[in-house]
């Protein structure tokens, strides 16, 4: 059984039509790349349930969730920013991932502290998000996402605001959290940095004009043998740090 199946899913914004067919295996890490406007965010929004497709089926863990809201789907999402409640400490933010109640039980807080220690933030568990750096905030968001143990993790350019060295650190952290997870989630990661996939993702999907044009191992796709991918890589090279 696949973790994710998008079957003939269509969606049209005012000027652009999309159609996606995609399978992601349990525990597989898929990076989604492609030019601006290709449909990467739309694909993720359909997967997470923020957009409802016009036709087709979204199946997660074998269950048809096409009409289900984001909260009803077995997914955690980490965005580029605004993942955390600004008035709550890091440990409370993480604990809310497993115990969404106002009066957090001590057991949930203890698990949250443990999760923060595993991402190197044990000493900062009591800080508010505003008292953490951008990279630290994303560590908190990742700690929460992995603690929830949802079968699917959607990453929407989570490290776009970070410099290349920090991005690499974060990708390494995901590698480690995957290995340590009782059941590693399937990951779909939208990124504007194709190089992020190398050494981390299992597969890369290249999107253009609302279609998945090519899907393969990072080495295959990023070799640039496909002319459309080569054109995209050529265009991004100038901006790739
Ligand atoms: N709310 C909207 N209303 C109308 N058109 C939209 C809307 N959101 C996206 N689009 C259009 O749909 C297409 C795909 O947009 P999408 O945001 O999915 O692309 P993307 O690959 O994520 O782009 P980027 O890399 O710039 O974030 C684009 O042509 C965009 O202009």
Automatic annotation (TrEMBL):
GO terms assigned for molecular function: ATP binding; ATP hydrolysis activity
Pfam families listed in its UniProt record: ABC_tran (PF00005)
InterPro entries xrefs: AAA+_ATPase (IPR003593), ABC_SmlMolc_Importer (IPR050093), ABC_transporter-like_ATP-bd (IPR003439), ABC_transporter-like_CS (IPR017871), P-loop_NTPase (IPR027417)
Domain ABC transporter: 1-234
Keyword line: ATP-binding, Cell inner membrane, Cell membrane, Membrane, Nucleotide-binding, Translocase, Transport
Recorded family membership: Belongs to the ABC transporter superfamily.
Name used for this protein in its record: Thiamine transport system ATP-binding protein
Lineage: Bacteria, Pseudomonadati, Pseudomonadota, Alphaproteobacteria, Hyphomicrobiales
């Amino acid at each position: 059984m696949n973790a994710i199946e998008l079957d003939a899913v269509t969606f049209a914004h005012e000027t652009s039509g999309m159609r996606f067919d995609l399978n992601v295996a349990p525990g597989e890490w898929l990076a989604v790349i492609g030019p601006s406007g290709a449909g990467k965010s739309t694909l993720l929004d359909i997967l997470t349930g923020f957009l409802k497709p016009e036709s087709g089926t979204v199946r997660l863990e074998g269950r048809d969730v096409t009409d289900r809201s984001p909260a009803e789907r077995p997914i955690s999402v980490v965005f580029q920013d605004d993942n955390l409640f600004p008035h709550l400490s890091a440990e409370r933010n993480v604990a809310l991932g497993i115990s969404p109640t106002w009066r957090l039980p001590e057991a949930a807080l203890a698990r949250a502290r443990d999760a923060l220690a595993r991402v190197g933030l044990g000493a900062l568990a009591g800080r508010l998000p505003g008292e953490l750096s951008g990279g630290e905030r994303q560590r908190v968001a990742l700690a929460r996402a992995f603690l929830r143990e949802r079968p699917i993790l959607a990453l929407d350019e989570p490290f776009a605001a970070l410099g290349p060295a920090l991005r690499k650190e974060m990708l390494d952290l995901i590698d480690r959290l995957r290995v340590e997870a009782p059941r590693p989630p399937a990951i779909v990661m939208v990124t504007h940095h194709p190089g992020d996939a190398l050494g981390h993702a299992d597969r890369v999907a290249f999107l253009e004009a609302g279609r998945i044009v090519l899907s393969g191992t990072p080495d295959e796709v990023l070799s640039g043998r496909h002319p459309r991918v080569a054109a995209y890589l050529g265009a991004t090279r100038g901006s790739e740090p």
